[in-house]
Amino acid sequence: MSACVLCRVADPAPVVLLEPTPPANHLAATPEQARALPRYPLDLMRCNACGLVQLGDVVDRKELFSDYRYATGAVPALVRHFGQLADDVIERLGLPAGAKVTEIGSNDGTLLSFFARRGMKVLGVDPAVPLAAEAERRGVPTEVALFDDEVADGIVARQGHSDVVLAANVIAHVRDVDAVIRGIARLLGPTGTAVVEVAHVLPMAVDGVFEFIYHEHTAYYSLHVLRDAFARHGLDVVDVQQIDTQGGSLRVWARRDGQPDNAVTELLAVEREAGVEDGSFLDGFGDRVRRVADRLYDVVAGLRAQGKVIGGYGASARAVTLLGQSRIGPFLEWIVDDNPRKVGLFTPGDGIEVVDRGRLDERKADYVVVFAWNYAESVRRNASAFVAGGGHLILPFPDLVVD
Predict the structure, then answer these.
(1) How many CA atoms lie within 13 A of 173 on its CB side?
(2) CA-CA distance, 87 to 337, in Å (whole number)?
(3) Which of 121, 152, 213, 302: CA 20 to 30 A from 205?
(4) Residue 103: how many CB atoms within 10 A of its CB?
(5) SS3 for 118?
(6) Sign of CA dihedral 204, 205, 211, 215
(7) Other C-beta atoms within 10 Å of 19: how many?
(8) How would you classify the pairing of strands 332-336 and 354-355?
(9) How many CB atoms within 10 Å of residue 377?
């Protein structure tokens, strides 16, 4: 990487160098195609100027997202989360019917559908053609585009400013972060509010939760970085909530001419004490990554050596990173997934078949590695028959546990 994706200062410094992997959502039609996919470096860097933690190599966004298969509506826990988010936004801001709500990275329209049901005028922006089509079928108008300031100008010209701009787990994906935040600022009306959710880099580094590092995630944010990035475009972070998604995330509220509340001040102090400002919170991150990956390998390889049949649960992007770093792919027979778009395909790199949950219910394995560990309670409910029949779940994070 020659420059930071946020501030454009040259030569971010290395943090941890992971094994190269294919794009994590590029499931293939055959195992041979899956294993032949190109692998790209997966090196984590930190900008010494603005503090943003980011990938050293950025894969072309169109290659990553034009046939993106991650569908929000296929994850019940995430649907519930977005329903609660919509309720929170509507209640806090007192949004009336007819309010204009725009979402960046709107996926299949799940989040916006909650606002549409309340009579609001919604618009999604997403580059994935199949997901945008699904959103349209659900009654959520969607513009197929990679959002930036020019796209924002076009929306304003056609339908005016937005009362709310949502960006849930999307600014981690973009290559030109400054252009996206500039676009959010242009899209908002004078009294509008941006609500942004993003994985929090502090617990990721402290707990060694490295499997959120994959090519779709260009950057990994602290509140310090977000506050400064929004301020450059006249937006003040006025509130922040710490939420459980993605192993620990931030929900940031920003608007013009606002004052930060106590939650913002307190979390900035926590980050400062942890070493976020000078980057020292990243010390030892690489060692933690290696320990987690090696321990998972030892457990799975040992079970396989005993003749145990091992499967996986959750053919997510995170699974590809964890497979690539732990090297357990050759030991897995299959991975179950609740998303029908993925069933019948093969995981990038290892070429593991993705099957529906019926395979789990048939008790075709002794152990299952839970890649969707951040939805552990939902997985346990779905796997109750498997466990009742004597099967065991392996949860890699936050501490490796064999149920």
Answers:
(1) 27
(2) 28
(3) 302
(4) 28
(5) coil
(6) positive
(7) 15
(8) parallel
(9) 9
Sheet of 401-402, strand order: 354-355, 332-336, 310-313, 367-370, 392-395, 401-402
pTM of the model: 0.88
Specify whether the CB–CB gap between 281 and 206 falls below 8 A: yes
Please give the Cα distance from 81 to 296 (Å, whole number): 29
What are the tens digits of pLDDT across the range 137-196? 999 999 999 899 999 999 999 999 999 999 998 998 888 889 999 999 999 989 999 999
How far from 402 is each of 298, 366, 387, CA to CA, in Å?
A: 13, 12, 12
CB atoms within 10 A of CB 402: 11
* Sites in the chain below the pLDDT cut of 70: 1, 61-70, 74
Looking at domain 285-402, what is its CATH homologous superfamily? NAD(P)-binding Rossmann-like Domain (3.40.50.720)
**Other beta carbons less than 10 A from residue 339's beta carbon:** 17
**217 contacts: CB under 8 Å, gap ≥ 6:** 55, 172, 173, 199
Report, at the CATH architecture level, how domain 72-282 is classified: 3-Layer(aba) Sandwich (3.40)
Instruction: Give pLDDT tens digits for 48-72.
Output: 999 999 999 877 766 666 555 567 7
d(CA 136, CA 170): 20
